[in-house]
Amino acid sequence: QVQVAESGGGLVQAAGSLRLTCASSGRAFKDVFMGWFRQAPGKERKFVAGISRGGGMTTYADSVKGRFTISRDNAASTVYLQMNSLRPEDTALYYCNANFRGDDYWGQGTQVTVSS
């Protein structure tokens, strides 16, 4: 079992920045692939960014490349999503995802709202 909890969302103006944090507990964090997803009202949940267990490999959705950065601190069992140059279309509920041996674990989500 893996538990994750997101924080750091809020209201920000366009072109602003936010940093989301996801704290994990349960399984050894270094063994868990971590990612961020988001879901806008009335739309399906979509992948945003992912990071390998050791942190050496990252992947991003095309819509956030060059603006968002995912990172992890295995000693602190935490993953971050630094979001810069935010746009109104980034408004969504952001979810932290942990994948351990093919099983997905989700947090409750943290709301990000970007005003124009």
Q: What's the tally of helices?
A: 0
Mean pLDDT equals 96
**Structure class:** mainly beta
Which series of helices and strands comes N to C? EEEEEEEEEEE
Summarize the amount of helix as a percent range.
under 10%
Largest sheet: 7 strands, mixed
- Span from first to last CA? 40 Å
General form:
globular
Number of beta-strand segments:
11
Report the radius of gyration as a whole number of Å: 13 Å
Instruction: State the low-pLDDT regions, or none.
Output: none
Percent of residues in β-strands:
over 45%
Any overview of this molecule?
With 116 residues, the chain is mainly β. 0% of the residues lie in helices and 57% in strands. The protein is built from no helices and eleven strands. It has strands spanning 2-7, 10-13, 18-26, 33-39, 46-51, 58-60, 68-73, 78-83, 92-100, 103-106, 110-115. The strands form two sheets. Strands 2, 4, 5, 6, 9, 10 and 11 form a seven-stranded mixed β-sheet that branches. The chain has a four-stranded antiparallel β-sheet with strand order 1-3-8-7, with no helix packed on it. The protein starts with a strand and ends with a strand. The relative contact order is 0.32. The model has no long low-confidence stretch (mean pLDDT 96).
Briefly summarize what is shown.
With 116 residues, the protein is an all-beta fold.
Write the layout of secondary structure elements.
Blueprint: E1 2-7, E2 10-13, E3 18-26, E4 33-39, E5 46-51, E6 58-60, E7 68-73, E8 78-83, E9 92-100, E10 103-106, E11 110-115
Parallel strand pairs: 2-11
Antiparallel strand pairs: 1-3, 3-8, 4-5, 4-9, 5-6, 7-8, 9-10, 9-11
